[in-house]
Specification:
Blueprint (H helix, E strand, L loop, with lengths): L21 H13 L12 E5 L2 E4 L4 E4 L2 H4 L8 H13 L11 H13 L6 E6 L2 H16 L3 E5 L8 H6 L17 E4 L13 H15 L5 E6 L15 H11 L3 E5 L23 E4 L10 E6 H4 L15 H16 L2 H22 L6 E7 L2 E6 L9 H13 L2 E2 L1 E3 L5 E4 L7 H17 L1
Parallel strand pairs: 3-13, 5-6, 5-7, 7-8, 8-9
Antiparallel strand pairs: 1-2, 2-3, 4-10, 9-10, 11-12, 12-15, 14-15
Bound molecules: pyridoxal-5'-phosphate (PLP).
């Protein structure tokens, strides 16, 4: 790597108390009396300062961050260019509402996303607040533009927690359980999951099966959109077999169905390219984005074909805070940083380090190896844990490995339909030595069971 990264905080893991320490424990007590238990935290130390790959807690412990606040702080949680842009904008105005008095930052973000996203046709971009809101808006646009109702989503999908996006999300516990009734006209199809499905690496046949089910259960002319994560996030970092995405996209194109790529988690250099759909040269009609877009500030976007986006009547889309000027300033700075620091290149480099290290861990464990598969792209790598010698999911192992890593000061998240996956999403500005140290600990954590 030629880019040199610089940091404000020492990039060193350092534990000065047990985790969580006394200050975090005191805050947990206050929280318990003030915040609903329904809102959980996977690494219950309270943050005081963050930089690069380090989170310093209120007790002075420095932990290694392998989660980036769920794929958000790609450019770091205190990227100086982002921090300066936020401060500068906040000193002028924090809000006017784009639907009342517009401002340049919004337009500049839209121009930038129109240029960065795949497809050399004319595009438009609308800005919103969260990934779920972007997905809701993409569905609204697709339904209006096609005059159809049906929406196709996939097994293991995660698209958010609002009513419509809960309907699109596959997993009931914890996301949907007893929160219904859900939005109608959502149809779920089998996802290509090479580690588990009978099609294996034959993505074309897996897609043909899904297409045949769509034809039989809904009929193409009733389908407004197919929505899919090019690499699934919460569902387990499932990378569909080669051919699955292009076959679906071609079918959509031939049948007047809007192909929506939900890039909320996989977008913005995370997988080693600007967007994950680019790895198979898939050009979506609409792309939903959020998470990594603005260096930690809440912002989301829908970018897509101008004819679809402009089909909506004036006033049909919007929201009070959508495209907030401070968030737009942060996004412009974050997107520049991604180019300047070559974070797509760093994502690939990080992916190589992680894969090499964890492959060595798997090999060293011989017949006791619980790693069923290491998969993903770039800085989005999953370790699927199973009972050794089988593909039986081992959720307890994932849970205990994450807990062990946390006790040593490494924040690693779990995910997956079966809860048996460790997912690694480090900030793309993490230092190599720090990443290697975290992976050594994670290897011990996996071995410890
Ligand atoms: C996180 C996520 C969402 C929801 O985003 P929020 O900002 O939490 O509403 C939607 N789609 C995908 C793929 C996600 O990972």
């Amino acid at each position: 790597m030629t880019t040199t990264l610089s940091y404000r905080l020492p990039q060193k893991r350092n534990l000065v108390t047990e985790l969580p320490g006394p200050q975090s424990t005191a805050l947990a007590k206050r929280r318990q009396a003030a915040v609903p238990a329904a809102i959980g935290s996977s690494a219950p130390v309270y943050a005081a300062d963050c930089d690069g790959g380090i989170i310093v807690d209120v007790d002075g412990n420095s932990l290694i961050d392998l989660g980036s606040g769920i794929a958000v702080t790609t450019v770091g949680a205190c990227n100086p260019a982002v921090a300066e842009a936020v401060a500068a904008q906040a000193h002028h105005f924090t809000h006017t509402c784009f639907m009342v008095t517009p401002y340049e930052g919004y337009v500049a973000v839209a121009e930038k996303l129109n240029a960065l996203t795949p497809g050399d046709f004319e595009k438009r971009t609308g800005l919103f607040n969260s990934g779920a809101e972007a997905v809701e808006n993409a569905v609204k646009i697709a339904r209006l533009a096609t005059g159809r109702n049906g929406i196709v989503a996939f097994d293991h999908a995660y698209h958010g927690r609002t009513n419509l996006t809960m309907a699109l999300t596959a997993k009931t516990m914890p996301y949907k359980h007893n929160f219904g009734p859900f939005a109608p006209e959502v149809y779920r199809m089998p996802m290509s999951y090479p580690f588990r499905d009978s099609f294996g690496v034959d993505g074309v046949s897996a897609a043909q099966q899904a297409i045949s089910m769509i034809d039989k259960q809904i009929a193409a002319d009733s389908v407004a959109a197919v929505i899919i994560e090019p690499i699934q996030g919460e569902g387990g970092f499932i990378v569909p077999a080669p051919g699955f995405l292009p076959t679906l996209a071609d079918w959509c194109h031939d049948n007047g169905v809007v192909f929506i790529a939900d890039e909320v988690q996989a977008g913005f250099c995370r997988t080693g390219s600007w967007f994950a759909c680019e790895h198979e040269n898939v050009v979506p009609d609409l792309i939903t984005m959020a998470k990594g877009i603005a260096g930690g500030m809440p912002l989301a976007a829908v970018t897509g074909r101008a004819d679809l986006m402009d089909a909506v009547h004036v006033g049909g889309l919007g929201g009070t805070y959508g495209g907030n000027p401070v968030a737009c300033a942060a996004a412009l700075a974050a997107l520049d940083q991604m180019t300047e620091l070559d974070l797509a290149g760093r994502a690939k480099h990080i992916g190589d380090i992680i894969t090499e290290k964890l492959t060595a861990t798997a090999e060293s464990l011989g017949a006791q190896n619980p790693i069923g598969e290491i998969r993903g792209r770039g800085g989005m790598i999953a370790v699927e844990l199973v009972t050794p010698g089988t593909i039986e999911p081992d959720a307890n192992r994932a849970k205990s490995a994450a807990a062990y890593a946390f006790s040593k000061g490494v924040i690693a998240l779990t995910c997956g339909t079966y809860g048996n996956i460790l997912r690694l999403l480090p900030p793309l500005v993490i230092d190599d030595d720090l990443l290697n140290e975290a992976l050594d600990i994670l290897g011990d954590a996996i071995a410890a069971g």
